[in-house]
Every structure is written in C-alpha cells, then in structure tokens.
Write a sequence for this structure.
C-alpha cells in the first residue's frame, strides 16, 4: 500500500492540511515546518496524487523541460539540475527532446502537452523570434540557454561574449598568439556560436592582436568527430595554431584526440579550452580547461521564474519579462597549464 498524506503528517508531527500546503507550495509556511515536512516526504518516498491535485487546484504539479539532445552531457546535467530544482517546489518534470529542430521546438513552445503541464522550460536552438511572437496563449514559458530573443518571456541565458573573452584571455595570458576558434557556424547573429566567435575576436583585438580568419573553423555539428575533423584541418595549415578555443567540451575532446594521435604535446605544443564543464573533460587523458556555466543556478532560476509565472497566471496580470545571466567561471586544468586545479 502506498504512502499517504496522513502518513507524512504523522512522521512530521503536523496536520494533514500542513502537509498539503507544503506539497502545493503555499508560501505562508514557516521554513522549519516546511523543512520537517519535506524531510518526512523524502524519508517515506511520498508521491502526491497528481490527478487529485489537478482536480483540486487546476494544476497538475508537472512542468515540462524541452532540450535539444539528452545524449549531450551538458543537457543531461542541466536536466538533472532542473529536476532537483523543481522537486523543491513539489513539482515533477516531464522531459522532451527536440533534436534542435525548429519544427519540434515550435510544436513544444506552443504547448502541445498543455493538458498535462502547468508550464514549460524550453532550451531552443533553431526557434526564431517570430515563432515566439506568434505563440498562442498556453502554459507559462521560460526560455533557457544561450540564444538571444526579443520576446515577452523570461530568459535564463549565458553571457557568451564575456565567457568566450574569459577563455581567450586565459590563453593570451599564457603567451599563446595563434589562437583558433573551432565551432563557428553560418547562422543568426544571436546564435551562441556567433556570440562566442565575437568574444574570441574582441579579446584578441583587446590584446593588440589581429584575428586570423584561417584560424576560424566551421563545423557541421558540435560533437567529438566535428572537433577531430576541425583539428585535422588546423594542423594542415602552414602555421598551425598554438591554442584552440572550442565551442564546447565535446568538440575540444575531439581536438585532443587528434593532437594525441599526431604526437603533439598538450599544452606545450597546443593548449585547448572547452566550454560546458562536462564530466568527460575532467577525466580526459589530459584534463580539459573549460568555461563552466553555473548549471545549478541556471536551473534554479528557470524553475523559480516558471513557478512565479504559473502562480500569477490566473490573475492575467501584465509582467515585464526578465533576462537573467547567471555567472560562469573558468576551470583551469591540464590542457592549458599542465596541472589540474585543486578541487578536481
């Protein structure tokens, strides 16, 4: 027999009504009481009856998260962080996979699961501004990720230009002068690859250098194979790079593989910096220096914004959309300095 709300109340030493208020995330609960009830919920493995909740409150207690690719370690980590953040609000997360296709992102953004969910967090790749402006009324939406939009929705983003400049500045400070950028795409100026390329250019110019077009390599995708192919092209240059800033860690790992196969030393011959701080980079043969977005903060802010919109939705009150930029750090490891940081 399943754990009931009364079982939780008995374990926590509170009334069933108090447990219900905590489960439904009512705000006027003392922190100590909320913590005691949540501990009892966790210990007993209590799961609210979503159908009963929906009938009682008009809400399902379910939010959706749609990402381009769950097989990508960055999005897998992000999904786990969103699930944890939602659990603190008593919500369950329904995962969707868009494959980064505009048609799929448009379908998801328009709330095709609106009968199941209270709100949606969407991390788009190809979705255009016009798609969002034409979005019909539906569940509250929060945008997540790196592409920029001028649409009336909260957006938890990454400052791609500043993050790229941080990575390139690190390489310049280490004395590198021919710094390649791997992962450029012919795409919207608002896309993250273009913004990271812009940061690469700006930081080289700031240091008094001249960005060299032959050191910018476009890729078809953002996986290890793409990084390996790009690194092979760069090594064929008459004057190869002495450093590489890769669009993401997967691309960087592909580049590291080719450098190892060619017998080149990392970082002595070529230094490499990635982006995303995935676990594979930490445990690579040469651990990878990387830009680390604060994934926990991104997830927490996205869920907090969405819950705020869900709770405000019945009043249909106007709101000013927010664009929030959580922090990022540079995690320095062996691929640029020959040594790992202490916390690794």
């Amino acid at each position: 027999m399943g754990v009931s709300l009364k079982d939780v109340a008995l374990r926590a030493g509170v009334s069933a009504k108090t447990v219900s208020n905590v489960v439904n995330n009512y705000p006027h609960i003392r922190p100590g009481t909320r913590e005691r009830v949540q501990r009892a919920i966790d210990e007993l493995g209590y799961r609210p009856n979503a159908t009963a909740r929906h009938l009682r409150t008009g809400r399902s207690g379910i939010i959706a998260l749609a990402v381009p690719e769950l097989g990508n370690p960055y999005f897998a980590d992000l999904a786990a962080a969103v699930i944890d953040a939602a659990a603190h609000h008593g919500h369950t997360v329904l995962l969707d996979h868009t494959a980064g296709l505009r048609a799929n992102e448009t379908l998801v953004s328009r709330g095709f699961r609106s009968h199941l969910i209270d709100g949606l967090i969407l991390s788009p790749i190809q979705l255009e501004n016009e798609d969002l402006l034409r979005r019909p009324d539906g569940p509250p939406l929060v945008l997540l990720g790196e592409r920029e939009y001028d649409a009336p929705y909260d957006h938890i983003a990454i400052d791609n230009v500043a993050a790229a400049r941080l990575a390139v500045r690190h390489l310049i400070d280490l004395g590198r002068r021919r710094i390649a950028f791997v992962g450029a795409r012919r795409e919207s100026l608002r896309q993250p690859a273009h913004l990271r390329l812009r940061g690469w250019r700006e930081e080289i110019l700031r240091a008094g250098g001249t960005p060299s077009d032959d050191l910018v390599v476009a890729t078809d995708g953002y996986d290890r194979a793409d990084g390996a192919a790009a690194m092979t092209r760069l090594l064929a240059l008459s004057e190869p790079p002495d450093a590489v800033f890769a669009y993401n860690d997967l691309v960087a790992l592909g580049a590291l593989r080719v450098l190892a196969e060619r017998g080149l030393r990392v970082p002595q011959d070529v230094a490499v910096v990635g982006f995303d701080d995935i676990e594979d980079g930490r445990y690579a043969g040469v651990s990878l220096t990387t830009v680390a977005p604060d994934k926990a903060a991104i997830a927490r802010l996205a869920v907090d914004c969405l819950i705020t919109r869900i709770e405000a939705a019945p009043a249909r009150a106007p709101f000013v959309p927010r664009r929030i930029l959580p922090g990022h750090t540079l995690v320095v490891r062996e691929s640029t300095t020959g040594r790992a940081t202490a916390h690794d």
Notes: Residues 295-312 form the longest helix (18 residues). The chain has two domains: 57-158+294-327, 160-293+330-337. The domain at 57-158+294-327 is CATH 3.40.50.2300 (Rossmann fold).
